[in-house]
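Posted in: Structural Biology > Protein-Ligand Complexes

Title: Requesting predicted complex, DLL in pocket

I'd be grateful if someone could produce the 3D structure tokens for the following input. Sequence and ligand are given below.
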Amino acid sequence: MFWNEKEENISEEELLSLQLRRLAGAVERAGRSSYYGNLFAGKGLKGKKIKNLDDIRDFPFTTKDDLRESYPSGMLATSMDDIVRMHASSGTTGKSTLVFHTGRDISNWANIVARGLYAVGVRKSDIFQNMMSYGLFTGGLGLHYGAEKIGALVIPIGTGNTERQIDFFKDLGTTVIHVTPSYLLHMGHVLEEKGLSPSESFNIRIAIMGAEPHSEATRKKLEETFGIKVYNCYGLSEMNGPGVAFECTFQGGLHLWEDNYFAEIINPDTGQVLPEGEEGELVLTTLCREGMPIIRYRTKDITRFISGRCACGRTHRRIGRMKGRTDDMFIVKGVNIFPSQVETVLMETPGVDKNYMIILDRKEGLDILSVQIEIRRDFFRGDLYQLRDLQEKLRERLKHVILVTPSVELVEPGSLPVSTGKAKRVIDKRRL
Ligand code: DLL
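-- Reply #1 --
Done. Output follows.
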């Protein structure tokens, strides 16, 4: 039932004292990087010893902007020689947030992913089709290594190429898939169009689903459509990637692996740590990472701790399904996008006026991103070719920056709604 009973069924006292030891080590290691070294020295925290878990509250938060500003290696806490792999957050181009891992970091990460996979019933005999992008994005390699550790046969197919995915389902008898909710919804439509019953045609038992927000209703719908069990897996590249928290077969929340991450829930406005059970922003500290320890990272994800021990027996506390984010980031086809990235492209393109709107929708299970853009009156001289050129140029530039191909609609100046307060740039019509 457990991948590693000693680690997962650890007593609360032991877990707390392990966290304390590891937290002290994490702060000490972080201080070796130029970023934290200077920060701690400037705040008089250099050499501060962590004597109890609450001592971490004296340390400042780390944000995505801090990671960007310390690009490329300001948070590196070891020599570059000790690093064996680098990943980056999805959807970032240019100055992205890089994370460096030593060999031991990769092995620890694979261990907690294996833990999560084992907890939902993945075994050595399974055929694991990994339908997430490989590369800088952590979804591909992150689960790959965990599934290999269990001894499953891993098919590193990545995302897309739906025809081949279906062929492998049939020909190799895939039993477990790792997929984003939007891609699985899309597959359901494709299969139905082909006259194939998703629930009767294959051997799939389990889907691991993550990287994007989704609701309990979406889970239920997918479980029914495919006749499988769907389990939620949460993570973010700054904290390694997938597998920070994983559901077990009881589906009553996600076990956050507290021997690897120290978690706090804060009030996003005041930064105050909230009492257990209250909803707020999840803040995480890496407890074991050597290559790039991160202290009190503001994930911007809203969740809460679920009280009580899970029926599965694991001690690690559970968090609830993500309720949303405190910033304006949205996720399309598993890729993180900020409206500011779209805005930068638009404002750099001659002919574009001030107002624009991003519309997110879902057709046959597939995410669609459209951008409506007001065009300057003096630019529009009734030349259709010129407009088509501009439309094409915008589509290409946006695709280059946000890594998702948008549909671009050019509209007359003054035709989009003008907001009086904070501009609402994104309309999300997708039903999660
Ligand atoms: O999305 C890592 C991942 C890959 C997780 C595969 C699970 C499966 P990033 O690209 O850095 O990393 O994006 C992280 O995605 O802060 C959340 O807002 C969102 N997110 C990730 N998993 C979930 C989930 C990967 N299960 C950001 N539910 C996070 C809701 C999720 N949101």
